[in-house]
Design brief:
Low-confidence stretches: none
Mean pLDDT: 88
Radius of gyration: 18 Å
Oligomer: single chain
Strand order of the largest sheet: 7-6-5-4-3-2-1-8-9-10
CATH architecture: Alpha-Beta Barrel
Length: 268
Amino acid sequence: MFLHFECTYRCNMKCVFCNIWRKNIYEKEATTQEIKQRLVECYDLGCSITSFTGGEPLLRQDIGELLEFSRQDLGTFTGLVTNGILLDKQIEPISNYVDALAVSFDVNNKELFNKTRGVNAFEKVKKNIEHAKKMGVDLDILSVITNETFQHIDQTIEFAKSLDLNIHFSPVDNVPREFMDVTDAQNLKILEDSQVLQKLNEEKRNYKKIHFESDYFRFQSLGGFNNVIRCSSASSTVSLKPDASVALPCPFFTLMVIKKDENLKDAL
């Protein structure tokens, strides 16, 4: 099973297609020990892969300790998704305890990157990616395709190629949250997904480290997430929230919550 751990809702970016930062919904985050206990419970349920996400996970002061506990003590395959701003500050625990690192880098254009991400962080993130690569950290780039970033996709691919990095493209989406309004994602969508897929397929023939899911692009073009489409995540994924509660079936369409003081195995 897969553990999707949103370890904080705090974030140091204000992405136009994201909604986590838009309201003060920062519930009290669980302590280090509370998180460790929950990680053990998830491991006992069969979770062999743990992905630390956010918000921005590197804002947690104990992130290094939690990564070490996940990787060393439990022996789970440990992943981390970050926006890259604090990557240089946490490079040691990341290099030692993260099996799969993914850094968000939507577009290799300073003005548009800063506009999309809501902060002036282009140079910082780019430098941190380059530094991590030089340090021998195995990392991938994540790029969200909007109708604006698509216009600069050649430059973004060239940046990935210059560092010999895998780059994963996904369409912009208004990911639903029970506590949030919609974002600007709808206005940023590309209406003709065939144009994007044709371009990505052409580029992949020249650079094999380009990755994307054709079906997901088509799924988004048909309307994306809604309350009707069936999903099997509840049978394969545990969704852990910052306060150590568990959202079922997932954090996007939460139907019930297992509170942090409830034993996970007993509750399920």
